[in-house]
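== Sequence and structure of one protein ==
=== Format: two labelled lines per protein ===
==== Data for this protein ====
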Amino acid sequence: MPTNTYFDSLCLYTVYFLSDNLVHVDLTSLCFLIPLYTTITNHQHILCHKIRKKKRPLMPLSDNQGFIPSSPKPDYTPKSLRTLSIKQLKSLPTDTPTHTIDNSTLSTICVAGWVRSTRQAQSGTIFVLDDGTAMINASFWPNGMFEEEQAGLIEPNNFLRVIGNVRVYDGDISVSVSFLTKIDDFNYVSYHFLNVLQQHLHCRRELKRETRKEKEKEGMIGTLQEDVLMCYRNNQDEKGLHVDLVVKMLQGKYKEQDVREMVNSLLDDCYLFSVDGMCYKTVD
């Protein structure tokens, strides 16, 4: 059994502990008993706590040697929001797991059109959408108060913009709607079809986006035009200003060929007119 012995040179006592019960105390004076008992009891409780402290059980090793399996690999399938006409959707094949238009795999689509008919299902609404190019079946299954409010917009003759995914039902292409909104400004119709054309041409590489270099070139041309006109306005007289002087004034900023071409362009656009030979003057 564990025994604790404590020495004090001033009190000359010995105290023996057996578990939590005081067995024998030899004191020179009874007055030292209370503080001594308090001190030793606290120390014993700390010591017993350390002895009795249970070790945490070790986690059993799994088949992965203690490592938690990693989460499933992320899906790297390209995601996009493609604006389409209904006729484009109806031209899709129905026997393929994925759908492609203009060499681009469809993920999420956006179509717009008038609601021609509706039919209430057990937990949603099935309706026919017509954008003027074709008609297509669409289904909307609301889940929550917000989507219940959206479902109330599915009424005949309402013009809706819907976002969803392509589905094949009974051998026919349809749209499973995840979001819809009512369009009251019919300028959106023109915007929608312009967006359809723009995306179609871009995916077919028939419409290129303007590069940074092209933008910088356009900016440089605009600045060159302003500088040439400003050079004429600030330095011309009744006889105009010779083109060689303009080239010399701007030689530290532009190439000579660019300046001369800009002067000729300004002449063709009637910003400048000839006074005498190569001397020109601004119209204003």
About this structure: The chain has seven helices and 13 strands. Residues 1-34, 46-51, 58-68 have pLDDT under 50 and may be disordered.
